């Protein structure tokens, strides 16, 4: 792997420089009360990394999304609860919520994806939705933002462009 300057990237310094922003959300469809509310966590790395081959017309490939797809994530096609509950469940990924409900850790087979505080405004019934299903939907994109009034539009634009990957993980509470 090389940087824009053509120099090789040091994987250790690369990983140390990545910040992950995360925001909890709740997805509900009044027309589908049988599904209930679905707890989600939007996860945005602080940078994006793209690569492509040297053939004419080759499009850049998002390295983070590509890696997550290889681990079992799927492209997000819709934000409705029926689509979210149909996402793959990653058996080896585990989320853990702190006893006070303010901190979340997401552990993968190769390390920790996220270990931090949840947003100050956790949606009402978010914890209830996790407890009911035992699952959390992870939405990961390097092409969206969590800041500002355009968050929903930004996420929908990213989804329509095929730039959100998603999966479900099991969640447990620390006792």
Report on the architecture of this protein:
- It is a single chain.
- The chain is an alpha+beta fold.
- It contains five helices and ten strands; from the N terminus they run H-E-E-E-E-H-E-H-E-E-E-H-E-H-E.
- It has helices spanning 11-16, 63-70, 81-85, 126-133, 151-160; strands at residues 20-27, 38-45, 50-51, 61-62, 74-75, 89-97, 103-108, 111-117, 135-140, 165-173.
- The strands form two sheets. Strands 1, 2, 5, 6, 7, 8, 9 and 10 form an eight-stranded mixed β-sheet that branches. It has a two-stranded antiparallel sheet with strand order 3-4.
- It is globular, with a radius of gyration of 17 Å.
- 25% of the residues are buried.
**Total number of strands:** 10
Discrete helix count = 5
SSE pattern, N- to C-terminal: HEEEEHEHEEEHEHE
State the end-to-end CA separation: 42 Å
- Percent range for helical residues? 10-25%
**Unreliable residue runs:** 1-15
Which percent range describes the beta-strand content?
25-35%
Please outline the major beta sheet: 8 strands, mixed
Taking all Cα atoms into account, the compactness measure Rg is 17 Å
Which structural class do you get from the secondary structure elements? alpha+beta
Report the principal-axis shape: globular
Mean pLDDT: 77
Search tags:
8-stranded mixed β-sheet, 175 residues, alpha+beta, 5 helices
Task: Describe the secondary structure blueprint for this structure.
Layout: H1 11-16, E1 20-27, E2 38-45, E3 50-51, E4 61-62, H2 63-70, E5 74-75, H3 81-85, E6 89-97, E7 103-108, E8 111-117, H4 126-133, E9 135-140, H5 151-160, E10 165-173
Parallel strand pairs: 2-9, 6-10
Antiparallel strand pairs: 1-2, 3-4, 5-10, 6-7, 7-8, 9-10
């Amino acid at each position: 792997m090389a940087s824009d300057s053509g120099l090789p990237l040091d994987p250790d310094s690369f990983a140390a420089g990545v910040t992950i922003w995360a925001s909890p959300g709740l997805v509900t469809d009044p027309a589908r009360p049988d599904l209930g509310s679905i707890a989600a966590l939007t996860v945005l790395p602080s940078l994006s990394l793209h690569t492509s081959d040297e053939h004419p017309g080759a499009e850049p490939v998002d390295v983070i999304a590509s890696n997550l797809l290889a681990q079992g994530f799927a492209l997000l096609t819709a934000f409705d609860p029926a689509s979210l509950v149909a996402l793959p469940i990653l058996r080896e990924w585990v989320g853990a919520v702190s006893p006070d409900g303010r901190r979340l850790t997401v552990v993968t087979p190769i390390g920790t994806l996220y270990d931090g505080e949840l947003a100050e405004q956790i949606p009402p019934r978010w914890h209830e939705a996790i407890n009911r299903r035992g699952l959390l939907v992870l939405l990961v994109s390097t092409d969206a933002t969590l800041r500002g009034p355009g968050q929903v539009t930004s996420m929908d634009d990213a989804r329509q462009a095929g730039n959100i990957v998603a999966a479900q993980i099991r969640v447990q509470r620390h006792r």
